[in-house]
Structure formats: structure tokens, C-alpha cells
Amino acid sequence: MSVLNAETPDFLNSLKFNNINLLWHPSLSEASADEFLSLLENIESGTIPLDALCLEGSVMRGPNGTGRFHMLSGTKRPMMRLIESLAQKARYTVAVGSCATFGGITMAGSNPGEACGLQYEGQQPSGLLGESWKSEAGLPVINIAGCPTHPSWVIETLAQMAAADFSKDNLDNYNRPRSYTDHLVHHGCPRNEYYEFKASAEQPSDQGCMMEHRGCLGTQARADCNIRLWNGEGSCLRGGYACINCTAPEFEEPDGNFTETHKVAGIPVGLPTDVPKAWFVALASLAKAATPKRLKVNAVSDHIRIVPGAIEEDKEQ
Amino acid sequence: MTTTPSKRRILGPFNRVEGDLEVHVEIDDDQVSKAKVNSPLFRGFEQILQGKDPLDALVYTPRICGICSVSQSVAAAQALAGAQGLQSCPNGQLATNLILATENMADHLTHFYLFFMPDFARQVYLNKKWFEQINTRFKAQTGTATKDVLPARAAWLHLTGILAGKWPHSLAIQPGGTTRSITAKEKITLLTTIRCFRQFLEEILFTDTLEQVTAIKTEDELAAWQQTHQTSDFGRFLMLADDLDLASLGGTDNALMSYGAYHNNQEPLFKTGVWQQKYYTLDTSLITEDITHSWLKGQSKARHPFYGKTQPDSDESSGYSWCKAPRLNQQVVEVGAVARQMVNGNPLIQALVSQSGTHVKNRVIARLFELALVLPEMEQWCQQIQPKEPFCMTSKMPDDAQGIGLVEAARGSLGHWIKIEEGRIFNYQIIAPTTWNFSPRDTLNQPGALEQALQGTFVGDDETASVAIQHIIRSFDPCMVCTVH
Lengths: 317, 485
Hints:
The complex is a heterodimer of chains A (317) and B (485). Chain A is an alpha/beta fold and 317 residues long.
């Protein structure tokens, strides 16, 4: 449903202007029941060419590898068999969302559904199709990870394929489109001043940086959520809650709890990407010593109590 | 009695419902004589939640569904608040109401324009005098309505960008309020966004003010309104409903239930209760889930959700769905907008349902009517936010506790029951709206609400393509991913 949030233009116009013909979509297409089954038959027999197969949701292999946990309605066929078959026909195969890519939230706990992604099972390359699988275009499954995905991550990737302007170089180490994973969620975070001075939020609606106590993984998470905003002006951090690194495999099983920073000897276990630990600790303690009062106070308030320039002692420090 | 054996058909997959659905029908004399509804996807969220930190339910449960995500968040937050004995602050309650109403209104809009109406632009209706008009307006993907609705819906969800960071899957809704404080300037942005959507509803859906629409109180007043608002999309639906006699489709006379919606100063906007010829208070201790006809094991008789178990067993021979059969005092109940408005005593819905029961037409009217009822309330809630007051209360989670979260999603009553032992989730049971409406039979062999609604449907010569069945199914606005979870 997230992709229907696309704007300027809307989802259908975004496809149209990029020369993408939507064969079928679960929320938008008229074809239901037999009409849809006959479309599948025509694709599987090669009568209708399939440029891109987009799968949303994980592959349910249970119980005991039978696929009975997810049957294609109106047939006696496990959904995973249909997915395998369509992937063989598609020029590109695209996993949309962290469930379809890596197994995601449905792999959490004991993974009761025996869920996996199309070409990954958590961090392990395997999944339904296997590590070495390539689609007709010579590419692995394109993993548009995220829970949910930003509508434009999906649309732009499809548009690049339609324009024949998409290659292995556009994919990162987990075969995610680099168009959004070359960034960290931290980039563009409006709480950056609090981060710089280690002025940290303690309670759910506090304004401070959420890395130290509130579980935020924005400095490690690969996505452009604070550059390419959500639903107008939003992002998780702008909404006042932690980044849980939902574009990463195995985000569903964090080291501790989601909204409490996992620490050893008072130091967060997960440090910012590419920052050496010794330097981080040194810089953090220096920053803490230099934190302006304005930031200390505002960090633990749910609205700005002290405006910039209001405190004399901050200027004199 | 017919002398020829029943014809059996397996119908599916159905799109323009959220998730996977299969319906088995037996047909005698061109009519559905028996229906069995199957939810063919099992993921096991209730098992996933066992052993987790209680607050992590706020991450897992919204991800059950991409369309009822906020409803799941609100139910989880309320169940956790119950376990903590925590009360939300006024701002937190107002913001939660606004976020939930945003999702519910978006879902009503999506259902009407994208899921339900495109079936009337099918070729089967080619010879109807209204076909050209309806086809131009509501044809799936290419109709003019889709071009109006997608941008309006996306702009409407900007409310969640501000209030909840994003939609779906927000962590903004907490047991004691919300994580996102709202400034005075943001109140203006929110109010402007709400009024943009008001304009869409007033100019396109109703061609009338929301206040004029909600002032309609009787069937005669509705008929008179219809005459003067024929070019509104609501008017178009009413015309179709008359011509195709949608009031004769999908009728049931089960009890109607609502958990009550949008609490403000302790009072809900829509009240809690049960309607069965008259209003009754709701006793949730009488809710049980039965697994006689589910592919599940582990409980010999129906259990209250605090004691419920979810253990899949695909070999269970009497099972035909992954869905459990929830019952209230052993009775089948229907949930959704029509139930909510009956329980709340809305005069028009009361007049319509007491006349002819719940059916395709009344279910859709109630949903559209709610758009007009809730939006003006949202304007009020927005104005009541006090930017300098707190948005979120906190308290420690006890090591052993239990809590219940009861909310109204767009498509009906959603309940979460959590038991916490030694600081971890011991049991978490969820009953979603479509679990009620699309349940399989129970130990008394009572069919679920959709199974009843399909019985007697005329399917004609080409029964597999019967569009009537699709109208009935979609009139419930089912969400199958929530149903089994």
C-alpha cells in the first residue's frame, strides 16, 4: 500500500510517464479469480511477456517445506511454486519490502512460517531462488528493502529498468538499489545538533538525539529517509522515534529491544558506520563536556524551551 | 429440493481485498446453497510475539498489515497501557485519534473508489443504461475517479507525515501518548490538510457540505438528497444500488458489535456496545475463539483470547481455513462501519438497517457516511491540541501483567490481548475485524458472517464470474492479512 502514497505524479502516472505497463496489481486491477488465473497461465506459457516480477511479502515455505501456509487461492498450488515459475519468465525480478528481500519481520522469533526472501534468508544468500540465480536480464533479485519501502524507491528502480539504464553497478552489497542505500538515515536528520553534542533524548517525546538511549540506528542504517521524506514532511526520526534499520537483513531481531540502546559498559554497541570506536568515544566525551545548556535542556523536553542565543553562559563557555 | 447434485466451485484469488482469500461454494438451482471461506495464508505473528519485550509489540504488530497498520499500533499501545496502568495525556489522545482517523478515512476512501466501485465498470454490465457513465468514472486504473483519488489520498496521508513520521508502520503511537509533539505552526498545516480533504469530499464525493450530508436522518430524506445530487459519486452509488437492488445482496441479521472509537476526555465519539434489535452493553469476557474448523490444534474447546493458543496443524481434517472463529457469547457477530453506526445510534443508519438489515448497500452507505461524520471531529481535535503541554506519559512496565487493546479499524473491531510474565510476552492474541466477518464455522456449525451473506446468492449460468459474489465479499472491506496474521 505504501507505493500508492506516490506523489507528483501519483503511482499510476509515475508508471505511465516511465512507459511501464502494469499487468496486474492486487489493489488496482480489475481482473480477479479466473481472469487473473488465466493471465498467470498466459505469462507462464510465454504468450504474455513479463518484463518485471515484483513480489511483496515473504515466501512462506512451511509447514515442513510444503508451502501449505500460503496457497494460491482458487488452485491447489503453493504460492512459492508460482513465484519460482514467474521468476523464470521475468526479465527482472524485484523483491519489494524487507519480507520479500530477506524474510523480514515474518522471520522473527521462531520463524513459524518458515519464511524467507526471494534470494536471501536473513543475511545469508539463499532464499527461495538460491545464491547463484539470475534473471533473464543477468541480474540477481533486486532487493528494494525497507519496512515499508518508500514509494519512490520502487518507482525509480522500475523506471531505470524500463529505460534500460540499470545494471549491477546500481546495486549494493545486498543487491539493494544504491539510489537510496548510498546514504545513511543519519544524513539530513534534523536532530544533528543534538547528535554533535551528545544531547540525548530520554523519553519517547523528547527532542534530543535518540542514539544514546532510545535505540536509534540512523547512523548505521543504509537509506535516504531524511533526505527523501515520507508522506510530505515525515521520517521516523522526525516522527520522534528510533530508526530500527528496517532496510537491513535481520532488522527484525535486534541485539536488545527496539527502542532501547543496547550498550556494553555504558557505550552503545552499534557505533556510527565508518567511525573508529576510540575516536567516537573520545569525540563523544569531548562533545558532552561542551554541550550548550540550550541543547541539554531541549534534548529532554518535548518542545523547544530555550531558543538559540538566549543563554548567556552558552556564549561564554 | 433439487434433484441434481450440487455444483461445487472454488473461487479465488480475489484482488482489491487486502491479502489472500478463497471461497468454496456449493450451488443448487443457480444459487449459492453453502459457502466456506478460507484464509489461505498463515504467518504466525502470535507465535513470533511470544518471548519478546512487551514494548516491541509496537514494532511487530503494525507490520501485520500495510493498510490497518495504525489500528494495530493503537490496539497494541492500548493493551500495553492497560498492563502498565498508564493513562495517556490529552495531547497524546488527540494526536492518536487524529492518526487513527487519518488511516480509517484513507481506508474508507480507498475501499470505495479503488476496491469496490470498479466492479460496476465490468463488461457484464455493458447493457445497463448507466454503463458508460460508470465506466468512465470508476473503471479500474483508467477511470477518472482514480486520477482524482490517488493524489487526494496521498495528500491526506501528509497528516501522518507530521503526526506519525510516516504511514504505514509508525512507532509514534505509544502507551502514554505520542512521540511527536506538535507546534502551533504545525496545527495550521494539519488543519489545512484536513480542509483540503474536506474540499475533496464536498466537491467530488458528496457535492454537498459534510454538515448537510450528516443531517440526513431518514430513508426518505436520503432518497430526496439522491435526486438533487446525482452527479456526486455517492449519488452515483445510490443510483446503482437502486438499479441493481444491492439491498437484496449479502444480507445477514447477526448481532452487530463495536468496541467504540476515538476516545476524548474518556468519552468515545462512537460508543461501545452490541446491537441486536436493541442496544446492549458489550461484555468482552464473553468473547471466545473456536478452532473446530481451523487448521489449528492445541485447544479442545473455544477459549477467551487471554487463554487462546495458535498452533498450526495443516493435517487437521475438519479444518478449512487458517482463520479462527471468534464468537460473542457463542454468537456470530458482524463488525464494520455499519455495526459501529448502529451501535452508536446514527439516525440514518438506524433507519436503513431496521428497515432491511445489513447488506451490500447499507454497508457502503455507512462507510461513506462515516467520512462525513469523522472529518469535522478531526478539525476539532486538531484545534484542541495544546503545543506547550506534554504529548507522552511514561511508566515502568511491570514484570507480570496483562492488558487489552480494543479499537475500531476502518473495517471493524480489532482486539489485542497481552499477557506478560517475567518481563516478556507470555501470550499475545489478536482478533481482527475480518476474523469476525470472514470466520469459518464453529463447533455449533454456525457459518461466519460472509458465509451467511453468500448463501442464497443467485449466480446465474456463469457462476465463476458472478460479479454478485464479488460485490458481497468486497462490501465487508475485508483485510485478509489481518484476519489470520
